[in-house]
Amino acid sequence: MRGTVFGRVATWLAIAALGLWGIRTTFGLVAIVLSERGVPRWDPAAHGYAAVLLAQSVRHGDALGFLAGVNRQVTWPFVDSILRLPAFLLWGDRYESGDLVSAALYAGSLVTLFLLGLKLHATRGVPAACLLVTLALLSLTYLFFGTTTMLEITGAFLLSLTLVFLSRAGSGPGWRRSLRAAGFCSAALFLCKYNFGLLWLLPLGLHESSAAWPDWPARLRRGASRLLRGVKRPRPFALFVFIYVAVLLGILVTGGGEVRIGGHAVSLRTPWHLAYYLYVILLIRLFLHWRRDPERLRAAWRSVPERMRVLFATVGLPLAVWFLIPYPNRVRAFFRFVSNRQEAASAGALHRLAFYPQAFAHDYAPSPFLGYAILALAVIPPPPSENRLDLGRLLYLTFWIALLATALHGYQQSRFFFIAALLVWLRAAQSCVWLIERSMASVIQHRGVRDAAWGAGLLALVGGGLAIRPDLAQTRATHRAFESPAGFGAVLETVTREVIRSDRPAVLLGYSNRLSTPLVAWQLSRERPEVDPSRLPERLPWLARGSGEALLQQRIDFLKSRGKRIVAALPTADSPLLDGEYRGEVWADSVIVDRLARSGDLISESDTLFADVGVRVRSFHLAAR
Q: What 3-state class would DSSP assign to 619?
């Protein structure tokens, strides 16, 4: 009895200490956001500016403008900007408004992870929850993303929230309500970032389908047989679809070409518009079937298990509607986003498979040794269960799919493992608690003694975590390095002032990760909200470093022929910002401006040097020849 009381007291002390640790960490992240007044780079600026546009529509009561702002977001859909919208309404269109939401989402993720951890073990959920939150608090990468306007922390929060609802969607009372909430959160995760959604929806579909249809292997064989019979004797519509898909695959593999129809040339170089048309055709076909025989479709719908119907209504239907909207083309945006990046470096199979385990051990764990130990725990299969909807089985499947999908993708960065890292922690926490409880049960028969041991272990866990917790000074340094320094704000102000100084349209040379299109648009909306966004300076196609003489001369001739004002914001040779990435981004523009100046074709209008950041902003036009 005494052991049980000690265990409970120790457990509550550990939970209280963990809660205070999480609160203190969150306030530390907020302090970093408010004190580091840097200028966001491309992706954070794009995510923040999307929320700014929505906030402006809300302030002006412009419902159509709000819907248009939501509709425009197809590369990165709208869920993240909706979640950040309240901060911009409360604190204005400051650059740090979106970062404050990230700190709040970080805190929300800690809460949802704790609630989820309670479901990882039937009797030792609290230790699993404490271990799970401790692993998150010890991750420098998670701390950093709690200070910047990026989609990673939003995705982590949405996935953990989805799993919380799903863990409560078993066979007990209220399971439908919990499953609906999990379905809507799953759709929101997909509409936050496509690859986040895919990494979750694929294992969720497999898990739920195998539970709904235990005889799925026999069903799969029967379906394959029907498909083969259909191929041998295809109906007209099936033949049409087969040919259509073959054409799409042919364009995708070969790059397409041009065909002539009725004397007119038709370009068939990208399959995405054709893919959207096929999607619409299939929906029309389904609608016609429903009109012709509605009772048959109703009967087919009723034959589907209820859980699958709930998930289709809350996940499938919203996404089907999203992809049906014709403009901008969401099908094209989706496939372009999830396909391999062209700049992805080729790597061998072993290097590709080892990249993310190494990234996890070094970037997501307090030390490489602990990182590899956590990974080893994660790969242990969950304890066997008769429940086909067992949460551990789903987490294990999702973990492996996320690990393999990220490894196989051609473009690899440590931050792309962000969602998978969450799954590693979940699996490691479940395996660790299961192994310890199983070992203790075989050695210690008395329940009270085991409770006391668990309580003492939790105190040791939280105390050890506090002893090795990351110094937030490291997070501050990482946050500062991820932004341009505050002095770059003066560069940005001068650029926007020079752009709108004249009625003549302008071209901006110097677009880069530091000086991005959404950043210039955001700054313009802050300084001169009455200026139409169409006044934004034109961005010319990027020329890679080392581009040939012909391409450089072609660009110079193009600028001369356009007769536009030119604003150039380029780093000086001794700029402290001039790292390898920045140098490569502005190399061609720097060479072109230097040649124009030496040739005498450049007629200067203004010239300002910002010595503290090593950037020179010049406004000029070209002499007529």
A: strand
Is the confidence at residue 267, as pLDDT, over 70? Answer: no
Query: Closest by alpha carbon to 418, among 359, 378, 345, 489?
Result: 359
Q: Tell me the backbone φ, ψ of residue 190, rounded to 5 degrees.
A: -65, -40
Nearest of 579, 478, 616, 510 to residue 38 by alpha carbon: 478
Residue with tokens 């001794």: 574
Sequence-ordered list of residues with C-beta below 8 angstroms from that of 19, at least 6 positions apart, any chain: none
**How confident is the model over 410-436, as pLDDT tens digits?**
778 889 999 999 999 999 999 999 999
End-to-end Cα distance, the chain: 96
Contact 202, 194 (CB under 8 A): no
CB neighbour list of residue 493: distance below 8 Å, 6 or more residues apart: 523, 527
pLDDT at res. 345: 47
Q: For 531, phi and psi rounded to 5 degrees? A: -75, 130
Neighbours of 215 (CB within 10 A): 9
Amino acid at 124: R
CB 331 within 8 A of CB 402: no
Take residue 529 and report the two structure tokens written for it.
Answer: 């909200």
pLDDT tens for each residue of 204-233: 999 998 888 887 777 777 777 776 776 667
> Which among 153, 199, 188 is positioned nearest to 409, based on CA atoms?
199
Strands 565-571 and 602-610: unpaired
Rounded to whole angstroms, how far apart are CA atoms 474 and 373?
24
Q: Residue written as tokens 């518009």?
A: 273
DSSP code of residue 378: H
Cα distances (angstroms) measured from residue 296 to each of 104, 299, 300, 305, 320: 49, 5, 6, 16, 22
Query: In the prediction, which pLDDT does 432 show?
Result: 95
Q: Which amino acid is at 412?
A: Q
Classify 303 in phi/psi space as left (phi over 0), alpha (psi -120 to 50) or beta.
alpha
Query: Can you give 314-352 as a three-state secondary structure string?
Result: HHHHHHHHHHHCCCCCHHHHHHHHHCCCCCCCCCCHHHH
How many residues are recorded in the chain? Answer: 625
> For position 135, what pLDDT does the model report?
96
CB-facing half-sphere around the CA of 83: CA atoms within 13 A = 26
Give the predicted TM-score (pTM) of the model. Answer: 0.92
Q: Report helix angle 447-468 to 418-443, nearest 10.
A: 140
Side-chain half-sphere CA neighbours of 114 within 13 A: 15
Which position has the token pair 């490489």?
368
Handedness of CA 471, 473, 475, 481 (dihedral sign): negative
Q: What residues have CB less than 8 Å from 207, skipping those under 6 apart?
A: 389, 393, 394, 397
| CB count in 10 Å sphere of residue 65 | 15
pLDDT tens string 287-331:
888 888 888 888 888 888 999 999 999 999 999 999 999 989 888
For the beta sheet containing 506-509, the strands, ordered from the edge strand earlier in sequence to the opposite edge, are: 506-509, 565-571, 615-622, 602-610
